[in-house]
């Protein structure tokens, strides 16, 4: 079994730090078709009032979903994932990129073993995903 399926309601799960670089944003833009220049062009991002180039919200959410899938030990176990985007992740033009801290807490365990998991994602000490919740079913 996995750490997630060994956990009870109220248990905090192991955290993870992920790094997002400009190269990640370009790769995601190509894969997703979201070529909006705010995700790769500093000048454009600043012109529209952003603090710099920002990560795609869906990319950040996908990193959180992959984190939950890894905790479950099986990506197909994640049967639902919802979230809101609350703040942007500003990605500097350097090799270090931006660090996002991911955390999770089991909030409910159903009779069939399905876990409801509250997920947090923070950048610079502030949440970037709001109301992020995953439903994970054992397979």
UniProtKB/TrEMBL annotation:
Annotated ranges, domain MaoC-like: 9-120
Gene3D superfamilies found in the cross-reference section: Hotdog Thioesterase (3.10.129.10)
InterPro entries: Fatty_acid_synthase (IPR003965), HotDog_dom_sf (IPR029069), MaoC-like_dom (IPR002539)
PANTHER family: (3R)-HYDROXYACYL-ACP DEHYDRATASE SUBUNIT HADB (PTHR43841:SF3), 3-HYDROXYACYL-THIOESTER DEHYDRATASE HTDX-RELATED (PTHR43841)
Family per similarity comment: Belongs to the enoyl-CoA hydratase/isomerase family.
Name used for this protein in its record: MaoC/PaaZ C-terminal domain-containing protein
Native source species: Actinomycetospora aeridis
